[in-house]
């Protein structure tokens, strides 16, 4: 299938189109994140992989679109957009909320006959593990902003611009609601391998919560830990990118 035969989409971003790449890597952002977070990943992996980053509604060039605050609804919408691009082997990388979404999208791709090469689940506990006391999405603006700053995953320039930061609060709040209200619905596990990546001091994921990813696939499940917190990626990007390159090539 060529690019010209695919319908135009606002959901997917190809920063470095590589039609001849042997594999496609779909990247799903964290809560409050956008497709541009994965621009460096696209640049580093081209031409070994055709990197396609997902752009959720309610941010950047989609800021005037209604946000989607439900993981399964998002997964339904995203998987429909991805399927026309599954004309070659695909892999999924998701961080935080993106990892949960990656799991739900992978379930839908497998149901449609596309078995991902790998699901990279970064910075997120297993789908079957949830915490009842998470209500950040319902907190006042000041508390939500404090949480964002504490997680250290937002561009410092954005954090320094109070007006800009408040303009993206609706998208952040919707993403947090999606992540915090998600509840796993038991069903057949994935068959694709899962690579679980976490920071050693991430308060969002305990060792036990991460270990439970093994129950969500009949394939191999491998664990990787890196010094750092929830956004360990910012300090270990080259190492993580090399891991992705190695796994999708293999």
From TrEMBL:
The keyword Transit peptide does not apply. Gene3D superfamilies: alpha/beta hydrolase (3.40.50.1820). Keywords: Hydrolase. One of its GO terms (molecular function) is hydrolase activity. Residues 26-248 form the Thioesterase TesA-like domain. InterPro entries: AB_hydrolase_fold, TEII, TesA-like, Thioesterase. The keyword Cell membrane does not apply. Pfam families: Thioesterase. SMART domains: PKS_TE. Belongs to the thioesterase family. This is Alpha/beta fold hydrolase. It comes from Streptomyces castrisilvae.
């Amino acid at each position: 299938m060529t690019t010209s035969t695919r319908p135009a989409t606002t959901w997917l971003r190809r920063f470095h189109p590589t039609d001849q790449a042997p594999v496609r890597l779909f990247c799903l952002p964290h809560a409050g994140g956008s497709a541009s977070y994965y621009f460096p990943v696209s640049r580093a992996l081209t031409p070994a992989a055709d990197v396609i980053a997902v752009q959720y509604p309610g941010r950047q060039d989609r800021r005037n679109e209604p946000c989607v605050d439900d993981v399964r609804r998002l997964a339904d919408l995203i998987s429909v957009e991805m399927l026309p691009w599954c004309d070659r082997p695909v892999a999924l990388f998701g961080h935080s909320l993106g990892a949960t979404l990656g799991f739900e999208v992978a379930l839908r791709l497998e149901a449609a006959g596309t078995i991902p090469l790998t699901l990279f689940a970064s910075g997120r506990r297993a789908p079957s593990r949830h915490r009842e006391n998470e209500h950040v999405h319902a907190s006042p603006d000041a508390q939500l902003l404090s949480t964002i700053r504490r997680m250290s995953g937002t561009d410092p320039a954005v954090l320094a611009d109070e007006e800009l930061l408040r303009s993206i609060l609706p998208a952040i709040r919707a993403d947090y609601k999606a992540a915090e209200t998600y509840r796993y619905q038991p069903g057949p596990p994935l068959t694709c391998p899962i690579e679980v990546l976490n920071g050693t001091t991430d308060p969002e994921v305990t060792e036990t919560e991460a270990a439970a990813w093994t129950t969500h696939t009949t394939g191999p499940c491998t664990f990787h830990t890196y010094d750092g917190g929830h956004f360990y990626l910012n300090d270990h990007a080259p190492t993580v990118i090399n891991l992705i390159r190695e796994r999708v090539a293999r």
